[in-house]
Amino acid sequence: MALSLTQSLAAFYVFFCIARMNFAGPFEIGIFGALNSWFVARRPIANAIVNIAQMAGLAILPLIAYAAMAAYGWRAGWVAVGATVLLVGFVPAWLFLVRRPEDMALLPDGRPPAAAVAGGRGGTRAIAEPSFSRAEAMRTPAFWLLALYTTVIFPGQAGVSLHQAPHLIERGLTPGMAAGVVSVFSVAAGLGSIAFGLAGRRLGVRGGLALAAALASGGTALMLAIAGPLTGYVAASLFGAGIGGVLTILPLAWADYFGRNSFGAIRGAALTVQVTAQAAGPLLSGVLRDLTGTYTASLTAFAALSGCGILLALLARAPRRPDETRRRS
User: Fold this and answer.
1) What is the pLDDT of residues 197-245, one digit of tens each?
2) In angstroms, rounded to a whole number, what is the distance separating the alpha carbons of residues 248 and 241?
3) pLDDT tens across 254-297, in order?
4) Helix, strand, coil share (%) of the chain residues, nearest 5
5) Among 74, 96, 119, which residue terminates a domain?
6) Domain of 14?
7) Which of 27, 109, 162, 205 could form a disulfide with 282 if both were Cys (CB 3.0 to 4.6 A apart)?
C-alpha cells in the first residue's frame, strides 16, 4: 500500500523491495512452514491446493488492480492490491491460524487428540518423521543435491515464463495466439499441481522431481520447434505441467527429508538459491536474445539445465542422521 505514496524512483525502489522481500521470504516460508506442520501424509495434495490458490490470486489481483486504476488512477491500484492482501491474507491467518497441531493437542493430518490415540484401540499412530537442524541438514548430500536441483530448474521456470510471449510472436504467432498459449501454460501448471499432488506419495519425492524436470525440459525443448499454435499449446502444456510439479513436490522434499522442526531455517537457506536462480533466468534469456537475435540459445540452455535436474532428483535420496547410521552399522 505504501507504493501508492511513491513520489520518486528511489521511493519506488524502497517500497517495491520491501514488498518483494516479503513475497520471496516470509510469505513462502510461512505458508509452507504452517502447511508442513499440519500435514504429513497429505502434504502433496495440500501443497497442490496452495499452488492452485496462489495461481488464482495471480489471476484475480490484476483484475482488482485494473478496476481500481480505471476508476481512480494507479495509486488506487496499489491500495486495492494491498487492502485485498490485508483482508484476505493477513486477517484470517492472524485470527485463526495455529502454528502446529500439537499446540491444540492434535496430530498432523487431522488425527485425533494425542491422548485418544494413546489409549484407543482404533486410534491412528503418529507417523515417524526425521528431525534435522539446519547445520545437520547442510552436512547431508541430499541438501546439496536438492539445492543443485533448484539451481538448474528455476532459471528456466522464470526465464521461459517471462519471455514466453515475445518468443511466440517471433515464431510467427499473433499476439492473440501468444496470449492463448500463455493461458494454456497457466492452466497446465494448475492441473499439473493437482496431478502431482494426488500422485505425490505413489511417485515418491525422487520420482516426482524427476518427472517434473523431464516435463519442463521436454516442453522447453519443444518451444524451439514452434511453427504454429498447436505446437505452442503442446509445449506450453508440457512445460506448465512440469513447473506445477516442481512447485508441488519440491517443498514436499524439504519437509519429508528433514522434518518439521527446523523446516523454516532449512527452507530459508535453500530459498536463497531459488530466488537467485529465478533472478538469473530472465536476465540470461534477455542477454542471449540481444546477442544472438533469437531465444534459441537460452531455450537450449534451459532445456539442458532442466534435463540435468532429472539426474539430480534421482540421486537425492532421503538422508540419514549420523546417529541412525551408527546404529545400523
Assistant:
1) 888 888 899 999 999 999 999 999 999 998 888 999 999 999 999 999 9
2) 11
3) 999 998 888 888 988 888 888 899 889 999 999 999 999 999 99
4) 85, 0, 15
5) 119
6) 2-119
7) 162
SS (H, E, C) 48-103: HHHHHHHHHHHHHHHHHHHHHHHHHCHHHHHHHHHHHHHHHHHHHHHHHCCCCHHH
Cα→Cα distances 215→261, 268, 324, Å:
32, 27, 36
Judge whether 192 lies within some domain.
Answer: yes
Residue 157 belongs to a domain? yes
212 and 114 in one domain? no
In which residue are the cell numbers 533469437 written?
294
- 162: amino acid identity, one letter: L
Counting DSSP H helices and E strands in the chain, the numbers are 13, 0
Q: The domain spanning residue 289 has which CATH number?
A: 1.20.1250.20
Q: Is residue 236 a contact partner of residue 191, using CB atoms and an 8 Å limit?
A: no
Residue 260 carries which side chain, given as an amino acid letter?
A: R
- State whether residue 42 is helix, strand or coil: coil
Q: Does 12 reside within a domain?
A: yes
Orientation of helix 175-222 relative to helix 141-170, angle to 10°:
140
